[in-house]
Structures are given as structure tokens and as C-alpha cells.
Amino acid sequence: MTTAKNYGIDIENIRSKIYHYKKQKIAYFVTVTFITGKQKEVIIERGTSKMLSQIEEMLKCEKPDKIQIEYFKGDSEKRNDVRLYPFEDVSEQTKAPLQPQFQGLGEVEISRIVDDRFQERQRKEEYEQLKEQVLELSTANEEFQETIDQLETENERLEKILDEKSQVRYYAGMLGDILEGIGISKDKIRNPIASLMGISDSEKSNEISQASQQSQVHNDTSGIVENDEPISKEQRERSEIITLITQYLESTDNKMLALIFTLFSEIEHDIDKANAVITYLKSQNK
What we know:
The chain is α+β, with helices and mostly antiparallel strands.
């Protein structure tokens, strides 16, 4: 019975080639034609590996002089490769006496060896390309991780600044309410409080008003620890003023701290100087 081996065709090798290109996501097709004399019969046209079994099926009832196999890569109509396999009587070759001298390799064997070497070289090139891609991705991943770490550090710093600024604005608004409660108008203290809160002139009125409303809603979060015994409004206001002044002094630089200390020292020795300073500030705001 005639088989593909009579033509030197290794069907499994062809399947392996198609599978190799499929792994690279490249379509690979074969067209198989039986040639008898001048007649040609196409039995597989742009077929896949599953259709190669038709060669053996057709050879059960046909015995062409030659089998032509054309290879197509991708969707292109242009042939990538063409192989022609003539009929060889394997049984007769088996019966033939062994030749003492070396006969060399046939065309089919040479073609197969070249094809195997080509595939091996291609696999090596693909392996080197994959190594380069892995190295590039690893380097990019390290750079992304450094960027993420820097952004996280900057985010933590900004969150801390916003939290501190929010606390300062809250207590500055409360200070405005307290000072207004003891007879000092908010219009007189708006500029110093706005400076302490770190806001621009266009934001002063809204920020002071909002901070005042927040202080009324959040009286229990003013930071003052209440004793079991009830305290008077005057004691509470006194404690809150002291707390705000302390926080402000802790946040100011040494130069401003020295000026404030000098002012407090003068007032301590002469209380009338405090009234003189307030009178001066009122005259500046008129």
C-alpha cells in the first residue's frame, strides 16, 4: 500500500511546523497537489494540520507520480515555500543490497536537515528577543516602583500639611468667636486671623465665617479635656485662648518669637502698654 513515506513526506514534521507558527500567532497553511503525468489534482487547499490526514486517505486509492506541497504564511496569497516529492518504492529499496560505499544524502534529507537547522536558529533568536523584553520590562517595573514610592511619600507630606492647616483654621475661627465674645470686633482681628490661617484676602471673609460655624458645631472637639466638675464659660474661653496662643507660638519662627516675647515682657511690667497697643491697632484699622 502506498503511503506518504513512499514520497519522503513526514506528516508529523509538517504538523510541527504549523504548530510552531501558531504559537507565534502566525497562520500557516498548506496546499497539497497530486501530480500524475500532466494531470494535477488538488486534494488539500490552504489546509491546517488537521487536514493532513487526507494525504494518507487519498494514497489508499491513488498512486501519483509526485506530490507537491505549497506553504502559505499568514493571509498572503503568495507561496512561502514549495516542495516536490517524487514517488520512491520503499519496499524495493529495502530489498536492494547494501552499498559498501557512502551514497550521500538525498534531496529530501538535505531539505529536512536545512529546515530543522533553520527552525533551531529561529527558536534561538526568539529566545534572545524574549530575554531582552524581560530585561526591559524588569527595568521599567523598577522605575515605576520608584515613582510610586516618591508619590506616596509626597502624598503623606501633603496630607500632614493639610491636616495641620485644617487645625490652625479651626482654632483661628474659634479664637475670632472668643475675642468677639469679650468685646473685640471680628473686623478688627480679621487680618491677623487670616494671616494665621494662611489664606488670601479674597478668602478671608468666607474662611473666618466657616471656621466660626465649625467651632460652634464641634465644641466637643476643641482639644480641651473637661473635668468631672463643670467649668464656667469664662474658664473655658480662657483655656481655649491659652491653647491657641501656645499653638501659634510653637509654629512661629525664632525671629517672630523674640518680638512677641519682648512685647509680652513690656506688657508684664506695665499693663497700660497693652491698652496702648490695642488703641494703636484700632486707630490703624479705622
